Amino acid sequence: MSALAFVERPAASEPDGLLLLHHGRGTDERDLIGLGDVLDPERRLHVVAPRAPLSLPGSPGYHWYLVPRVGFPDPGTFAAAQAALAELHDELWQRTGVPPSRTVLGGFSMGCVMSYAMGLDGARPSPAGILGFSGFIPTVDGWQPDFESRRGLEAFVAHGRRDPVISVEFARAAVERMQAAGLAVSYHESDVGHQIDPEHLPAAAAWLRGALPGDAAG
Questions:
Q1: Which structural domains are found in the chain, ordered by start?
Q2: Largest Cα–Cα distance of the chain, in whole Å?
Q3: How do residues 53-102 score in pLDDT, each as one tens digit?
Q4: 114: nearest Cα among 21, 44, 176, 182
Q5: 88: which of 4, 48, 125, 137 lies 20 to 30 Å off by Cα?
Q6: What is the 3-state secondary structure (H, E, C) of the chain?
């Protein structure tokens, strides 16, 4: 059983897919769970939001990894978070009966980073898509994204041009790398800071419906 705590918002009936939402730095599993209703108002999807494993002295909330420098997660804590998420993802796929191919990995900030880390890892099953808000593809010793094994994967990326925490250049670089590798990317920028811009949510919801269309059985 997974060591990570998590909250769930079930689908209204048999789920058409699974949406995993990984929170940002210093918050917890409840921070993004409400986004499930915004992105999936018809409740077609089973939505799960896990809690990051690290609790740091003097810092509120929870963290996925230590941050020696933006863009370059600490290798040890990053690998531990990957292992914990792999265990949870595998458990959810088995319990819900929803396969990786009907799963979107999403997140904000540090949680976006973990969505890239899990979704682009060649040792892991490929999801249907990655929903990334205000993050980056990490540079970590011992880990590389495997774009070759992700052909056909879709991504929605949104970032604020005035982000003082994670520069918009990280998002632009991620999009350029994914598009160069043949991934289908829907990219959105706006003049906000380090936040999810409400104006991007209708486009994100539409993208999600396309990434996980109805009639999963078919």
A1: 6-211 (3.40.50.1820)
A2: 50
A3: 999 988 899 999 999 999 999 999 999 999 999 999 999 999 999 999 99
A4: 21
A5: 137
A6: CCCCCEEEECCCCCCCEEEEEECCCCECCCCCCCHHHHHCCCCCEEEEEECCCECCCCCCCEECCCCCECCECCHHHHHHHHHHHHHHHHHHHHHHCCCHHHEEEEEECHHHHHHHHHHCCCCCCCCCEEEEECCCCCCECCECCCCHHHCCCEEEEEEECCCCCCCHHHHHHHHHHHHHCCCEEEEEEECCCCCCCHHHHHHHHHHHHHHCCCCCCC
Residue with tokens 């990570």: 4
- Cα-to-chain-centroid distance, residue 82: 12
Model's pTM, two decimal places? 0.96
What pLDDT does 58 receive?
Answer: 86
